[in-house]
Amino acid sequence: MSEKPVMGFAWYDAATFEQFREAMPDMSDSYEDWREGAHRDVRRAEGQGYRVIRIAMRPTEFFGWCREHGIALPGLQARRQFAADRARLVVRGERAGRRSFFPF
User: Fold this and answer.
1) Angle in degrees, 0-180, between the axes of helices 14-23 and 31-47, rounded to the nearest 10
2) Cα 34 off chain centre by
3) 93 CB neighbour count, 10 Å cutoff
4) Spatial separation of the C-alpha atoms in residues 81 and 98, rounded to whole Å
5) Virtual torsion, Cα 69, 42, 15, 73, nearest 10 deg
6) Which segments of the chain does DSSP mark as H helices, in order?
7) How far is the C-alpha of 7 from the C-alpha of 10, rounded, in Å?
8) pLDDT single digits (tens) 65-78
9) Whole-angstrom distance, CA of residue 29 vs CA of residue 38
């Protein structure tokens, strides 16, 4: 039995979206615009056979991760890489038999 490929997907909440947007102007103009597009993108990825893991984006964790990786001006690529890294941790935890896994 083959597993679905995994996609980490950066997931924002309304309370912190503007904080991200101020630091990364390449993001959607509003939380509502981002949310609409995100739901569409997740459905498309799932339709293509991916298992999508929504990764909660928290400013302190994300910007700390950027500093650790030498990313001074984060953008789309950094957000994607962060989500992919966190999704790998989730999958690794699942494979290790943990029922509840919070890597951060």
Assistant:
1) 100
2) 13
3) 15
4) 24
5) 30
6) 14-23, 31-47, 59-68, 76-95
7) 10
8) 999 999 999 999 99
9) 13
Q: How far is CA 62 from CA 14, 59, 98, in A?
A: 16, 5, 24
Distance CA 95, CA 56 (A): 21
* Closest by CA position to 63, among listed 82, 36, 45: 82
**Pair of tokens at residue 43:** 């459905």
Nearest residue to 72 via CA among 82, 81, 63, 84? 63
Which tens digit of pLDDT belongs to each residue from 49-97? 999 999 999 999 999 999 999 999 999 999 999 999 999 999 988 888 7
CA distances from 65 to 3, 35, 48, 73, 82 (A): 28, 23, 29, 12, 8
